[in-house]
Amino acid sequence: MIKMSYVKKSIITAVCIALCVLLPMAFHAIPNAGNILGPMHIPVLLCGLICGWPFGLLCGIAGPAVSSLMTGMPVIAYLPSMMIELAVYGLVAGLVMQLIKTKSTYANLYISLIAALLSGRVVAGITRALIFSPGSYSMSAWITSYFITCWPGLLLQLALIPSIVFALQKAKLIPGCYSYNNEL
Amino acid sequence: MSITLKNVSLTWQDGTAQAINALLNVSLHIEDGEFVGIMGQTGCGKSSLIQAIAGLLPISEGQILIQGDDIHSKSYDKNLLRQTIGIIFQYPETQLFETTVEKDVAFGLKYSGLSKAEVTQRVRQVLTFMGFIYEDIKRESPLALSGGEKRRIAIAGVLACKPRILILDEPIAGLDPRGRESFLKLLHKLNKEGITIIMVSHNADALSEYAHRILVMENGRILLDDTPNRIFHDIPFMEQHHLDTSNPCRITWLLRQQGIHLSKEAVRYDSFLHSLVSHCTAIGNEDPIENRKAVTADEIPPDR
Amino acid sequence: MKYPLTGKFLPGKSCIHQLDARTKLLCLFFILATLVTASSPLNYLLLLGIMLILIYLGQIPLAAAFSSIRRTWLFFLTIFLMNALFFDDGSPIWSWGIFHLSKGGILQGTHVVVTVIMVMILGNILTCTTAPMALTTAIGYLIKPLKLFRIPTDDIAMIIGTAITFIPTLFEEIETIKKAQTARGARFESKRLKQRISALFPLVIPVFLSAFRRADELAQAMEARGYRKAGKRTSKKAPSLPLQDRAVLISCFLMCITQYYVFTYLFI
Predict the structure, then answer these.
(1) Are C173 and C210 in contact (CB under 8 A)?
(2) Which of C132, C163, C219 lies at the smallest CB-CB distance from A8?
(3) Which of B8, C96, C262, C264 is the most buried (most CB within 10 A)?
(4) Is residue A138 part of a domain?
(5) CA-CA distance, A71 to A99, in Å (whole number)?
(6) Quick check: is C179 in a domain?
(7) Contacts of residue B158 in chain C, CB cutoff 8 Å?
(8) A176 in any annotated domain
(9) Over the stretch A56-92, which tens digit does the pLDDT of each residue have?
């Protein structure tokens, strides 16, 4: 079990932030892929899963911000809700990954991913409700509608992200077993 | 599979103030089975040219014809283009992604219309051709292999489609001498089987050894289109355009400047050696120039 | 293809371009605070006037300053309608089922839309006149107080700065991988969704592999040069603000404070 150094985790976070800017651009050329898959979610989730919750949190906050700065997507109007949603993804993915210790990496990944995606979407739904109609009774409507439209993307991410993690492990770019330095 | 380009132009950000001409009015014809080398400085348009031929870049003007068919016409089957042309970029091992070698190599055959058994057969063939033992390697993860093995798997993946035209963008960059040699021998073998090869390279020695024809590009245009012989011996021209020439040519040039007139036919190492030995032997025999004849390999005395 | 990824930054020599990024960021916050607390139309007009002056001083083309506002029309429409139709202020003008159109709702909706538009313009002014790296360094400097909460702000600034420098390199890499996989038959532009989705695997996996490889190399290089966790590193001393920056900062602050008090207490 190799431990990843603080420096390595930092640079991986940097690279994930860069990919938060670039993947949406790459997906933009592919019709509809951007809407369904949420390209910015992938690097943030990976960062949280691989590097731990502090880095995942940073990636989730900085990713959309840098993307908005460099390419104008997401538009400043949507930026706060995106930042919150992605921050939750990175945070929860990292936290759950750290806490869950089943014998199979697959199980660890799936559980952390599902936890992160669900909590992220719930928080996003709440945020959107708050932004669009503070104090009104249609909040639950907002949350549920957001939830329902996201199912295909969720399944896709569940398929794609573990494949990436395993590919990285095989290429020996990340350690075979996750162990977190609890130092910050 | 012949390739014809007619007045092809490619402009980035066409119509804006930052428009850049990657290709300017390029016309070219490559016959089936030729081995063409493309040289030029960075930014001259070589990568744009080969990517345009492979149908990976849209062109602003002109036509690109493969075996007479316009590849950008609405009726042209893009799938056919992908099967016909194989392109190997620099560091091809970065394109590996599958969980097993077998799946990765078979990726290109997904839409080829072959049956499952035929695909397995092809994969077996091409892996054996690249020097692997099929049964041993097929279930390995391509990502866990060594650098050299990864590159061979990536190339196998491109060759699996049995392309009639193979395009390579600086394929020997980063290879050690042995790797370079075995790679070039591989290309030569493919060329002898009838595959048209277009290779972008800075390495004049490699191109002089195998290429039938060299294209020199500059600023989006083809500056020169001739045999290696004639191009590499024109040292002043090559130096003016900051291009490498093959070592035998350079030595021939330097010797000529010192008054030793070696034959200008020699562009490869073996022919250069012959002409050098013949010249030295003639000097040794004090033969007048008219009597000097070419020396065969058996007449060359062994090294001490 | 070489795509100049400098974001919305338009290089120039205007007086706004020449200000330190920290000054611009702080002024942005002051104006933002005034904007968020504004409510009277006169206040908004004044702020709009200020922004137009800034656009003029910064030699920013109008199209750039107002960019992406048109694209967000759906957001504006939704927010306006949500507020106008669902705001419950007790005296609806018109009712139909769950929809209650009210004057309070319309005002609220307009208020939100106008605020967001102005925030976008302000953001555009900042990004058009400040280079991304300068902005990152400025943010890194300004969040230093967070160090009190044991948050490693230097590392955060380094990470974001490195991310920005990685962007052009990774962009080229992604382009090459996309082309290589297209040439192998990956169907990114197929009419069938299933084919497009399955084409994502041969794109995304190699991209991450490549990116992580570079990260690995850079991390090793940094560690070999002695880079460790923050705390014991000598940091580059940020240049102190020149006189004109200080003047701008103070006058901006004073102006915003004055505006706030004038509009809150003199006009109700």
Answers:
(1) yes
(2) C219
(3) B8
(4) yes
(5) 36
(6) yes
(7) 183-184
(8) no
(9) 999 999 999 999 888 887 888 888 888 999 999 999 9
- Neighboring chain A residues of B144 at a CB cutoff of 8 Å: 170-172
**C232 belongs to a structural domain:** no
ipTM of the complex: 0.88
On whether the CB atoms of residues C15 and C141 are closer than 8 A, the answer is no
Residue A181 confidence (pLDDT)? 37
Q: Contacts of residue A164 in chain C, CB cutoff 8 Å?
A: 204-205, 208
What string of H, E and C letters represents the secondary structure of C17-47?
Answer: HHCCHHHHHHHHHHHHHHHHCCCCHHHHHHH
pLDDT bracket for residue B276 (50, 70, 90): confident
Domain span including residue C95: 15-145+243-266
Same domain, C161 and C183: yes
pTM, full prediction? 0.86
Vertex A26 angle, CA B52 and A95, to 5°: 150
Just give the CATH number of B3-94+164-240: 3.40.50.300
- How far apart, in whole angstroms, are the C-alpha atoms of residue B276 and residue C133? 59
**Residue of A48, A110, A50, A52 lying closest to A85 (CA atoms):** A48
Do C190 and C208 fall into the same domain? yes
C139 shares its domain with C262: yes
Residue A126, domain extent = 6-170
Range with the poorest average pLDDT among A52-66, B43-57, C144-158, C229-243? C229-243
The CA-CA-CA angle for residues B81, B87, B89, to 5°, reads 150
Q: Beta partners for B22?
A: none
Say how many domains are in chain C. 2
Q: What angle is formed at CA A168 by the lines to CA A164 and CA A171, rounded to 5 degrees?
A: 140
Structural domain spans, chain B: 3-94+164-240, 247-299
Q: Which residue has the tokens 């297209």?
A: C182
Q: Strand B69-70 vs strand B61-66: parallel, antiparallel, or unpaired? A: antiparallel
Flag whether A184 is in a domain: no
Distance from C-alpha of C223 to C-alpha of C191, rounded to nearest angstrom: 48
Three-state DSSP at C101 gives strand
- Identify whether the C-beta of residue B228 lies closer than 8 Å to the C-beta of residue B267: yes
Dig out the tokens for B275 from the structure: 């002409």
| Identity of the highest mean pLDDT range in A83-87, B179-183, B207-211 | A83-87
Residues C108 and C159 in one domain: no
Within 8 A by CB and 6+ apart from B268, the residues are B208, B209, B246, B248
Question: Given CB atoms, is A156 within the 8 Å cutoff of chain C?
Answer: yes
Two structure tokens written together for B44: 């001259």
pLDDT over 80 at B252, yes or no: yes
Domain CATH code at residue A95: 1.10.1760.20
Does the beta-carbon distance from C206 to B83 stay under 8 Å? no
Distances (CA, A) of C53 to B168, C15, C48, C249, C257: 55, 12, 9, 16, 19
Q: Is residue C31 part of a domain?
A: yes
Residues C37 and C162 in one domain: no
CA atoms within 13 A on the CB side of A29: 15
C195 occurs within a structural domain: yes
How many CB pairs below 8 Å do chains A and B form together? 9
Using an 8 Å CB-CB cutoff, list residues of chain A that contact chain B: 166-167, 170-172
Domain membership flag for residue A177? no
Element containing residue C93 per DSSP (H, E) = strand C92-96
CA dist C173 and C226 (Å) reads 29
The answer on C139 and C81 residing in a single domain is yes
Residues C67 and C193 in one domain: no
Q: Which two tokens stand for residue B59?
A: 């062109």
